[in-house]
Design a protein that fits this description.
The protein has two helices and five strands; from the N terminus they run ββββαβα. By secondary structure, it is α+β, with helices and mostly antiparallel strands. It has one domain. The chain starts with a strand and ends in a 5-residue tail after the last helix.
């Protein structure tokens, strides 16, 4: 099981945030970027560039979840690549 830690949260509005999260297991770690839209939609990006392009309508999220519980489950089990 992975552990995950919030490294930084940027508030776009009171109910919309960009969060940088470090996901780790015994030997590996990976950073994900999460756009939280009013607690109803969580879009996860593998890199910062895709997050920026998403706001320019030029890219899609790598993953999308409808609840925080689904997001936490994903982060807890995601296969870390590097």
């Amino acid at each position: 099981m992975n552990t995950f830690t919030s490294l930084h949260t940027e508030y776009l509005r009171s109910s919309r945030t960009n969060e940088t999260v470090l996901v780790s297991n015994k030997n590996l770690s990976q950073v994900f970027f999460i756009y939280n839209y009013e607690g109803n939609s969580f879009r996860v990006f593998k890199n910062h560039l895709d997050l920026i392009l998403f706001f320019q309508d030029k890219a899609e999220a790598d993953y999308e979840f409808g609840t925080e519980e689904e997001l936490d489950g994903f982060l807890g089990e995601v296969n870390i690549l590097h």
